[in-house]
Amino acid sequence: MKQITKHPIKSSLKRIFHYRACLVHLKMMGVERVFSYKLGRETGVTPEQVRKDFSEFGIKGNKRGGYHIHDLLATMENIFRRDMNHNIVLIGMGNLGQSLSKYSRFVHRNMNIVATFDIDPFKQKMRSEIPIYSMNRLKEVIDRFRVRLAILAVPEISAQEVADELETVIYYVNNILKDN
Questions:
Q1: Mutual orientation of helices 6-28 and 69-79 as an angle, nearest 10°?
Q2: Three-class SS of residue 86?
Q3: How distant is the alpha carbon of residue 45 from its chain centre?
Q4: 27 with 64, same domain?
Q5: Which long-range contacts (CB under 8 A, 24 or more apart) does 100-105 make?
Q6: For residue 129, what is the domain's CATH number?
Q7: DSSP state of 119
Q8: Which residues pair with 152 in a beta bridge?
Q9: Would you say residue 1 lies in a domain?
Q10: Are residues 90 and 171 in the same domain?
Q11: What Rg, from alpha-carbon coordinates, does the chain have?
């Protein structure tokens, strides 16, 4: 696959996600094949853009037969790595964080919250199915569970600071610790 800057990849991934939603809907209606013009019309892009996005991810179609919806969905699941289990950390155990930690649909999507974090010492002592740690253990937990995703459920005023710390920790774990 060719190297592309962050912005085009982000845009094409966003469109792939929209295509996926449309394909799921078509599959539920009993449709087995789809053409780029139909997918483009349903998602608000040109058929050329659909084909360009698909070729970027190695998805091939047939001019006369279109694309098999089942095959497209399987490929998109691989693109989004939905067939793999994902360990996640949840940062912030206020009302939103507590609700998210109990949300059962994460499991259906192969997402496993392995730990939660909060700066409040009282919340760290609470009994919970998922352990609640202080932020100074973030690096240790991310490394131990090979975490690649995090959910931030913190107040807006501290969100950027937490995101920056998280980025630093993930960089450290992925680059510095792996070299040793």
A1: 140
A2: strand
A3: 23
A4: yes
A5: 100/151, 100/153, 101/128, 101/129, 101/130
A6: 3.40.50.720
A7: S
A8: 91
A9: no
A10: yes
A11: 20
SS3 10: helix
Cα 50 from Cα 62, distance rounded (Å):
13
- Please tell me the pTM assigned to this model: 0.59
Whole-Å CA distances, 126 to 22, 88, 98, 100, 132: 43, 20, 11, 16, 8
- For 162, the domain range is 86-179
Per-residue pLDDT of the chain (180 residues; tens, 9 = 90+): 444 444 445 677 788 888 888 888 999 999 999 999 999 998 899 999 999 988 888 888 777 888 989 988 888 887 766 656 788 999 999 999 999 999 888 877 778 899 999 999 988 888 888 999 999 999 999 989 988 889 999 999 999 999 999 888 887 777 765 555
Q: Are strands 149-152 and 67-68 parallel, antiparallel or unpaired?
A: unpaired
Same domain, yes or no: 10 and 62? yes
**Sheet of 132-133, strand order:** 132-133, 111-117, 86-91, 149-152
109 in the same domain as 40 = no
Q: Which residue type sits at 126? A: M
Side chain identity at residue 94, one-letter code: G
36 shares a domain with 90: no
Closest Cα partner for 19 from 46, 2, 149?
A: 46
**Number of folded domains that form the chain:** 2
150 with 104, same domain: the answer is yes
Token pair belonging to 130? 């998922």
